[in-house]
Amino acid sequence: MLGPLARGALFFLAVSIVLCTGVLRSDATRSAAVVSLDDYEEDSGGDSPSFSFTFPETRPRGLVFGFYDETCPDAEEIVSSTVRRLYHADSNVAAALVRLFFHDCFIHGCDASVLLDRVGGRRSERDAGPNQSLRGFSAIEAIKQTVEAACPGTVSCADILALAARDSLVLVGGPTYPVLTGRRDSDGSFYYEAAGGGNIPAPNATYAMTLDAFARRGFTERETVALLGAHSIGKVRCRFFTDRIYNFAGTGAPDDSIDPDMVGEMRAACGRDGGAPMEMGYYRQGREVGFGTHYYAELLEGRGILRADQQLTAGSTVRWVRVYASGSRGEEVFREDFAHAMVKLSAIAPLTGSDGQVRISCSKPVEEN
């Protein structure tokens, strides 16, 4: 039977083929994938650029391939099969789990702190404004219970969330990418960090606020535009964009960056009451799920649902929107960029070794179980 290192090397090779990247080496601290976009021209009319992308560290401190090979060899398969079962029962769970992962990693790193309920009356991250519309908590708890039945007290909620996000993306047509494991769970939640300072871009955040939040986590504009491609799946509650279609910036008129036909569609879907639990999403081929570059094509047509989405076409980020929307070649580049950025996201400040804990229930620290 292959050991963890051999499995890791083979897995990296498989992922390289899937992503069509240059090199992903399990024995290197860094590798690079160079993307040449021959069919893309700068707005200035200059020569076609060749963009280089530095792959993030493949071995963050304490994270490895096959971390549970000896202690819970079926852990990743259990997570995958349970996510698949939950998805077939409700396809909306995929987008919910991906968003949950983003919001977790943006506050103190990927430590499952967003999953905690209130402890001792203290507010948790779930109470913070940007997190009040999060879903998927019960799905993570269901996965955790299944894993606990096989391997009690062994697999962290942080690793489960990281794996579940990747598996969810694959189910909706997204790229696969390597997920290292070995994370441990935070023993506390960080309400004030989640609630203030723009640490998590709210659904109605501006373009500048969104770019700033990602930049503070070390993401470039290119990586940010790629990660926002996750908006191609899931739905947004109407209350987060009602002002754009009725009274934008107090003008009494719609946001003039929205295509007029789109304004009509948004009004028809949402009505006047922004508090109604109505939702809209980016659709492809009549389906409400489906990961891909249709999101960027919609933005170029003035059909962005969220303000920050549409504003991606107004600044320097428009070049990446155009690249990703440029047909099959653009789709390939987007999938590579998105996968690389997700690896980088999943490596933000993990708790490893003796830090943190392994929760029995993802919503409660160990002492509360």
UniProtKB/TrEMBL annotation:
Assigned keywords, A-Z: Calcium, Disulfide bond, Glycoprotein, Heme, Hydrogen peroxide, Iron, Metal-binding, Oxidoreductase, Peroxidase, Secreted, Signal
Lineage top rank: taxon: Eukaryota
Swiss-Prot/TrEMBL cofactor(s): Ca(2+); heme b
Subcellular location(s) of the protein: Secreted
Primary site of residence: secreted
Binding of Ca(2+), residues: D104, G109, D111, S113, E125
Entry annotation: catalytic residues: H103 (proton acceptor)
Residues in the signal sequence: 1-20
InterPro entries: Haem_peroxidase (IPR002016), Haem_peroxidase_sf (IPR010255), Peroxidase_pln (IPR000823), Peroxidases_AS (IPR019794), Peroxidases_heam-ligand_BS (IPR019793), Secretory_peroxidase (IPR033905)
Catalytic activity: 2 a phenolic donor + H2O2 = 2 a phenolic radical donor + 2 H2O
Cofactor note: Binds 2 calcium ions per subunit.
Residue ranges occupied by any Plant heme peroxidase family profile domain in the UniProt entry: 62-366
GO molecular function: heme binding; lactoperoxidase activity; metal ion binding
GO CC term, one of those recorded: extracellular region
EC number(s) given by UniProt: 1.11.1.7
Residues bound to heme b: H231
Site (Transition state stabilizer): R99
Residues reported in the UniProt entry to bind substrate: P201
Record GO biological process: hydrogen peroxide catabolic process; response to oxidative stress
Disulfide topology: C72-C151, C105-C110, C157-C362, C238-C270
Family: Belongs to the peroxidase family. Ascorbate peroxidase subfamily.
Main function: Removal of H(2)O(2), oxidation of toxic reductants, biosynthesis and degradation of lignin, suberization, auxin catabolism, response to environmental stresses such as wounding, pathogen attack and oxidative stress. These functions might be dependent on each isozyme/isoform in each plant tissue.
PANTHER family xrefs: PEROXIDASE 25-RELATED
Protein name, UniProt field: Peroxidase
Organism: Panicum hallii var. hallii
